[in-house]
Structure formats: structure tokens, C-alpha cells
């Protein structure tokens, strides 16, 4: 690393010591506009950094990193709904806590997901039976080329499973600046997922759900401050019912859930069944208890994580004929890359 390079080690939860050439902190839309204008007149690779909890810095990045620090929470309401307008740099979990404190229900199942509010729409974050898209009213972004601000309705965001327009058509072209939420005052608890089923529907409060989600997550998932990770490393693959039936015939205990007209396979089960739980390649490893989580024992480089991820993908393909796809975004020397380079 030369003196003109800046380490991104403090800014990514995998704890990868990769660098960039410039790191700019964005605290206002005016500043964002200024920097995007500069980047469009004097082009250089760039990407937006939130909490760094959903990206793998595969190599040193030869460009500018825009670190989102836009702050602000605006809350209004009418008879039926709470409306929140949240700046992209706000911390997601702190927003969940803010809602609980202000008796705004709906976000509690998504407690303890690391990262910023502005990143939440990108992969339509989800956990414990709730997805971001169910709470979202609109998303506002600045176009990197024109610097114009546009607001999309939730429907226009084309949310899907860990997917949205921001990972497709608008990928790398916009910076999300504000997120709008519309939360019904006629709150209904979502208790259909795993350990939440033990809660009593008629008496449960959003605080009870929040507390249980936090407790289970703290038991299950390694804390990135202690052991570098990005949560689930692979998406759960979606296969047709026919494909699932043929897999089920060979692997009767296969873990899977209905997903629209298809079946979603539990990627963690596939990795565990392949005997890869705890598998280690240098300082990169599959977590000992959570097969879906790849960890950095301290000194792993981005390329070590990618080599391990490729090995897992290859093994799962060979054993089950199923293609695993990484969930985090992979950042190479000049910008986003795919697992194949
Ligand atoms: C321990 C752990 C548990 C997790 N659990 C879950 C979970 O339960 N469910 C889940 O869905 N995810 C989970 N994640 C993944 C992650 O927390 C989420 O995807 C989160 O939304 C990422 O936010 P971030 O600010 O850290 O994004 P970053 O990692 O900083 O960025 C992710 C991508 O979004 C882009 N980006 C970020 N902000 C903006 C913006 N304002 N405008 C445009 N592009 C932007 C970046 O360029 C990058 O491509 C977990 C991660 C960890 C480490």
C-alpha cells in the first residue's frame, strides 16, 4: 500500500485490509452533488460505501469511495399511518430502536441487521419473515450523471428476493439519498418464522419481537467486531418444484421452503451437507456453527475469501447440481465484479 492509498479496514465488516485512492465523507446532498459532478467531468472508478456489511473488497480499489453520512429522521402521521423520511446514512438498527421508542411498529423483525438505511432497499433486506419492501413507501436517489434527484415508489423499485432495480437497471448509476416508510397503525405482528412462533399472537408487543430477534441473532451470528463476516454469504437458491422433488428423492432431509411457485433451498443446509462447515483455507473459513457465514480469522485478504467462495460454489454444483450465488457485492480494482472475475 503506497502512502496515497487509504486503508478500508475500519469500514468493512469482513475486516479486509484493502485500500482505495480517495475516501470522501458525504454529509449533505450538496456535497454529494459536487462530488458526482466532479466524477462525471473527470471520470474515475467510484462506489458508495454505507456500513460495509454487504461487500467484499476483493482487491485494492483504484478509485474514489463515497462514504454515506447523510443524517436526518422526519416523522409525520395521520389517523392510519406513520410516515418516516430517513436519510441514507442513518444506521439501520438505530432506526429500528427509534421506532420502538416512538411506538412506531413494523420494523422490529429486522432488528440488528448491520448497515445503513440507504443500503436497505438495494438488496431488499429481510429477516424473520419480514422484508424491507413491505415497509417501504418510496426511495429517493441522485443520478450520478445528471445529479438530478428522483423519487421511485416502492412498486417502481421492483423489489424481489435480495433484489431491486438498484441491483439491476440502476446498478452503479445512482446514489440513494432518502428512504420513505409508511407504517400502519393497525399493526399485525409477524410471527410465522422459526423462534418467533413461540410468541403469543394476542398479547405480543413489538418490543417482545425485537428482544427475541436480538437474542436469537446474538446467539446465532458471529459479531463482526469479534470475527469478520458479512452475514449470509450466499443467497438461498430458488429451484423449480420438479428440480426440488428430484433433489428430495436423493436427499430426503433437504431443507427448503415454498417461494411463489418455486422452492427456495437453504444454502446453509447444502454447505453443511457437503461437509464444509468449519472448512478453512488459510485465514478464510466457513463458520463452525453457521455454514452460510464465511469468516475472516484476521489476516485474510479479499482474494482468500473469493477463493474459498469459489471452492464452495464448485462443491455444491458437483454434489447437488445447484448454483450458489454470493449475496454481498464484490468490489474489484475498478468497481463491482462477479465471482468469476
Ligand atoms: C452479521 C451480519 C448479519 C446480517 N444479516 C442480514 C439479514 O438478516 N438480512 C439481510 O438482508 N442482510 C443482512 N446482512 C447484510 C447487510 O447488513 C445488509 O445488506 C445491509 O443493508 C448492508 O448495508 P451497508 O450500509 O453495510 O451496505 P454496504 O456494505 O456499505 O454496501 C452494500 C452495497 O450497496 C451499495 N450502497 C450502499 N449504500 C448505498 C447508497 N446510499 N446508494 C447507492 N448504493 C449504496 C454499495 O456500493 C454496495 O454495493 C448482514 C450482515 C452482517 C455482517
Which key terms come to mind for this protein?
6 helices, peptidoglycan synthesis, flavoprotein, Uridine Diphospho-n-acetylenolpyruvylglucosamine Reductase, domain 1, Uridine Diphospho-n-acetylenolpyruvylglucosamine Reductase, domain 2, four-stranded antiparallel sheet, 341 residues, 3 domains, five-stranded antiparallel sheet, 22 strands, Oxid_FAD_bind_N, Uridine Diphospho-n-acetylenolpyruvylglucosamine Reductase, domain 3, binds flavin-adenine dinucleotide, 22% helix, alpha+beta, MurB_C, cell wall biogenesis/degradation
Describe the protein in words.
This protein is of the alpha+beta class and 341 residues long. The chain has 3 domains: 6-68, Uridine Diphospho-n-acetylenolpyruvylglucosamine Reductase, domain 2; 73-220, Uridine Diphospho-n-acetylenolpyruvylglucosamine Reductase, domain 3, CATH 3.30.465; 234-325, Alpha-Beta Complex (Uridine Diphospho-n-acetylenolpyruvylglucosamine Reductase, domain 1). Helices cover 22% and strands 26% of the residues. A 5-stranded antiparallel β-sheet has the order 7-8-13-11-12. The longest helix is centred in the last third of the chain and has 19 residues, at 302-320. The two termini are 22 Å apart. The model has no long low-confidence stretch (mean pLDDT 96). Bound molecules: flavin-adenine dinucleotide.
Shape: globular
Mean pLDDT: 96
Biggest pleated sheet = 5 strands, antiparallel
Q: Widest sheet: strand order?
A: 7-8-13-11-12
What is the helix content? Answer: 10-25%
**What's the number of domains?**
3
What portion of the residues fall into strands of 2 or more residues? 25-35%
> How are helices and strands ordered from N to C?
EEEHEEEEEHEEEEEHEEHEEHEEEHEE
Stretches where pLDDT is under 50 for at least 5 consecutive residues are: none
The number of helical elements comes to 6
The N- and C-terminal alpha carbons lie at a distance of: 22 Å
The CATH topology label of the largest domain is Uridine Diphospho-n-acetylenolpyruvylglucosamine Reductase, domain 3
Structural class given helices, strands, pairing?
alpha+beta
Rounded to an integer, what's the Rg over CA atoms?
20 Å
Number of strands: 22
CATH architecture of the largest domain: 2-Layer Sandwich
Amino acid at each position: 500500500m503506497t502512502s496515497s492509498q487509504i486503508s478500508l479496514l475500519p469500514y468493512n465488516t469482513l475486516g479486509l485490509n484493502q485500500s482505495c485512492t480517495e475516501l470522501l465523507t458525504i454529509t449533505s446532498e450538496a456535497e454529494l452533488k459536487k462530488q458526482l459532478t466532479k466524477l462525471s467531468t473527470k471520470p474515475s472508478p467510484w462506489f458508495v460505501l454505507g456500513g460495509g456489511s454487504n461487500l467484499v473488497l476483493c482487491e485494492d480499489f483504484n478509485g474514489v469511495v463515497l462514504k454515506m453520512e447523510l443524517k436526518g429522521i422526519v416523522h409525520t402521521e395521520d389517523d392510519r399511518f406513520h410516515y418516516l423520511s430517513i436519510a441514507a446514512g442513518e444506521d439501520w438498527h438505530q432506526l429500528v430502536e427509534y421506532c420502538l421508542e416512538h411506538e412506531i411498529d413494523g420494523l422490529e423483525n429486522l432488528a440488528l441487521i448491520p448497515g445503513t438505511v440507504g443500503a436497505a432497499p438495494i438488496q431488499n433486506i429481510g429477516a424473520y419473515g419480514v422484508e424491507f419492501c413491505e415497509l417501504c413507501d418510496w426511495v429517493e436517489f441522485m443520478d450520478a450523471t445528471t445529479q438530478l434527484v428522483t423519487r421511485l415508489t416502492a412498486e417502481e423499485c421492483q423489489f424481489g428476493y435480495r433484489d431491486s432495480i438498484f441491483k439491476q437497471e440502476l446498478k452503479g448509476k445512482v446514489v440513494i439519498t432518502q428512504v420513505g416508510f409508511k407504517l400502519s397503525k393497525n399493526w399485525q405482528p409477524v410471527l410465522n418464522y422459526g423462534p418467533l412462533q413461540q410468541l403469543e399472537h394476542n398479547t405480543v408487543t413489538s418490543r417482545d419481537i425485537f428482544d427475541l430477534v436480538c437474542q436469537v441473532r446474538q446467539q446465532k451470528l458471529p459479531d463482526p467486531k469479534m470475527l469478520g463476516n458479512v452475514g449470509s454469504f450466499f443467497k438461498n437458491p430458488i429451484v423449480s418444484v420438479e428440480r426440488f422433488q428430484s433433489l428430495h428423492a436423493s436427499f430426503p432431509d433437504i431443507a427448503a421452503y415454498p417461494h411463489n411457485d418455486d422452492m427456495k433451498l437453504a444454502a446453509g443446509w447444502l454447505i453443511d451437507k457437503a461437509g464444509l462447515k468449519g472448512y478453512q483455507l488459510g485465514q478464510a473459513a466457513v463458520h463452525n456453527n453457521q455454514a452460510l457465514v464465511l469468516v475472516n480469522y484476521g489476516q485474510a485478504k479479499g482474494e482468500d475469501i473469493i477463493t474459498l467462495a469459489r471452492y464452495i460454489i464448485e462443491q455444491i454444483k458437483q454434489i447437488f447440481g445447484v448454483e450458489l450465488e454470493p449475496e454481498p457485492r464484490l468490489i474489484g480494482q475498478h468497481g463491482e465484479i462477479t465471482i468469476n472475475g
